[in-house]
Amino acid sequence: xxxxxxxxxxxxxxxxxxxxxxxxxxxxxxxxxxxxxxxxxxxxxxxxxxxxxxxxxxxxxxxxxxxxxxxxxxxxxxxxxxxxxxxxxxxxxxxxxxxxxxxxxxxxxxxxxxxxxxxxxxxxxxxxxxxxxxxxxxxxxxxxxxxxxxxxxxxxxxxxxxxxxxxxxxxxxxxxxxxxxxxxxxxxxxxxxxxxxxxxxxxxx
Length: 205
Fold this sequence. Notes:
By secondary structure, this protein is mainly α. It folds into two domains: 1-108, Tetratricopeptide repeat domain (Serine Threonine Protein Phosphatase 5, Tetratricopeptide repeat); 129-205, Alpha Horseshoe (Serine Threonine Protein Phosphatase 5, Tetratricopeptide repeat). The chain has ten helices and no strands. The protein has helices spanning 7-22, 26-44, 49-64, 68-86, 91-106, 110-128, 133-148, 152-170, 175-191, 194-204. The longest helix is centred in the first third of the chain and has 19 residues, at 26-44.
């Protein structure tokens, strides 16, 4: 109806890419996201919110495919555009910091990952407060990197924050709560607190 080079067509490709990524069809998702990006670049140029969205989704798909360097490049581009368009204290900017942090963690750049994930958490705390699912996600992800660098005390605090939020929001019988119990137990195990680790992991069952 609209042809290939139309904003609605780009949006359809983007939506299709997000859906395919959630279904685990990362190869098809990547093709759809790339097509959305190509159209957005031609129609709107580089510094546009839709272009940033496409860079972000493409980066998330590359991350799932294990192409961490390419994912990092896409995440960084999305972040640069969103900061220029929206500033620092914006949900989309926080999402980009978080994705960037995950790609940095996957590449073993833990120092940069800590900074990016902490920035995402700080923005989300300011925008959404402590009791929000996305804040819990940030605490959990930050804890992963803190554990990777051997800062088990900070990792435990972050993991416990995530668990407390999820318990308050979702109660015990929820997948994210279960994940938090398991993650907290794994961190306690790394710290050598085996008794507490067992208790946390049992709660995850």
